[in-house]
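Fold Annotation — chain and its backbone

Encoding — discrete vocabulary of local shapes
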Amino acid sequence: MSRAEIGAHGLAGRLDARAVAPAALGGATILAQIAYPLVSGEPRNVLTVVTVLLFFAASVTHALLRRGVRFAVTLVAVTAGGGLLVEAFGVRTGFPFGGYAYAGTLGWRLLGVPVVIPLAWTMMAYPALLVARRVTAARVAGPLVAGWALASWDLFLDPQMVQAGHWVWETDGAYLGIPVSNFLGWYVTAAVMMALLWRLPVQPGRRVNHDRVPYGLYLWTYGSSVLGHAVFFGNPLVALVGGLGMGVVVLPFVRALRRPAGP
């Protein structure tokens, strides 16, 4: 085997490794989420934390291997760092989400916030950003679409987590006890994060198949959330509202996938 062939073989191996790690973590995330309705009590609480860690690792690993250190570090700083700060401020002041308090069910805390919460901002922000970029390249509208791609997820998440007892609201809100201010706060926070991330350079020449893992995790989150609330959690209203809200992004995204990917 010539040096050129050896080099090409080594390069192929490195490229394969870049694809395998995020895919394995993404697959483990899906398996953990499938197991979620099958357990209860403390095992479900532990599985919730494990799922966030796996999803976070899948997103950050993909960002690091496909888009480089600068992108990955900025992603974590903006979403996890920003998420921690806004959550810590929110717990203390009730702004911008409304008055709420975390229960002691999600593990270690930092600044009064369970550590998995800012990691959850990151885990979903990355696929939401890429989905929005696939839908539109507009500099102004793009971050707004990306913000909705992330914030609309909370139409599913918050009712599920409140039902599980992970946090409680101080006042009885209009959406299954959750105040509308929560979703407004989510959208504003998400849109600001996306505006900061939108101008990050994405390496040229990346084809759509390179982003199959985050795309798949976003679509899986949508489909499994609709199914979970409709069948397993007994919340058909959440399945409907979340399905419509997040579907505002999912539908044009699926249509965009049928078009040739840009460079």
User: Anything to note?
Assistant: The first strand starts at residue 100 and ends at 102. Residues 3-257 form one domain. Residues 34 and 224 are 8 Å apart (CA to CA).
